[in-house]
Design brief:
The complex is a heterodimer of chains A (107) and B (124).
Chain A lengths: L3 E4 L2 E4 L5 E7 L7 E6 L6 E5 L3 E2 L7 E6 L2 E6 L8 E7 L6 E2 L3 E5 L1
Chain B lengths: L2 E4 L3 E3 L5 E8 L6 E8 L5 E8 L4 E4 L8 E5 L4 E6 L8 E11 L8 E4 L3 E5 L2
Parallel strand pairs in B: 2-11
Antiparallel strand pairs in B: 1-3, 3-8, 4-5, 4-9, 5-6, 7-8, 9-10, 9-11
Classes of the chains: A mainly beta (107), B mainly beta (124).
Amino acid sequence: DIQMTQSPSSLSASVGDRVTITCRSSQNIDTYLNWYQQKPGKAPKVLISGASSLQGGVPSRFSGSGSGTEFTLTISSLQPEDVATYYCQQSYINLGTFGQGTKVEIK
Amino acid sequence: EVQLVQSGAEVKRPGESLKISCRGSGYSFDSYWIAWVRQMPGKGLELVGIVYPDDSDSRYSPSFQSRVTMSADKSINTAYLQWTNLEASDSAMFYCAKLADPGMIAAGTYFQYWGQGTLVTVSS
C-alpha cells in the first residue's frame, strides 16, 4: 500500500503569512496527488487535483506543486477563512489513500 | 447543480443493522462511481470503498471488506452503505463523494463533490 505522510500535523500562522504544507508518498505517484480542505463541521472540498490544477472557484492564493514522492500545498497569504484541516490524497493506485491531515490555525 | 444529499443521523445499539443513503442529482448518477469515506471523531479521512451505480460493482478498502456492504439503486439515484452487526467502533461520520471521471476508475481521479455527511453513533 502507498502511505501518505503530511507535515506538519498542525501549524499556527498570522493573517497574511505564507503557509506551506508538505505531503510525501511512500512510492512514486507521478502527479496523481489531490488536496482537500475541510473546515470545522463541514464536508471536505477539493482544492487541487493532479498536484497543481486549481479547482474552479478556489482562490488563487492556493497553489500546489511537486511530483514523484514530494508535494506541497502553499497558501500565499493566509486568510481567516482558511482555518481548516488540509488533506492530501494519492489517486495513483488502489482507490487512493489520504494523508493524516494538517490543521491550520490563525495565531 | 450537482448535489449529494445524505440521510440523517442515526443512533443504534451494538448488534443492530443500519443502512444509510446518498442521493445524487444534477448529473448522470449511473455513470460516476460513488465513494464512501469514514471520519472517526477527531480523526482523518479513510476511504471505505467505491460503488458504481449502474451495476452496483463495488470495491472495498481492505480494512472495511468484511464490515460493510455498498450498493446502489440507479432508478432512484441513490447509493447505500450498510452494516448487519454494528459495533461501537463503527461510530463515525460517513461521507459519500462523487468521483470526477465517468466510467472506469482512472488514475488521477478525485472526489469532486461531497455529501453533507451522516453521523452514525453506536452505543449501548
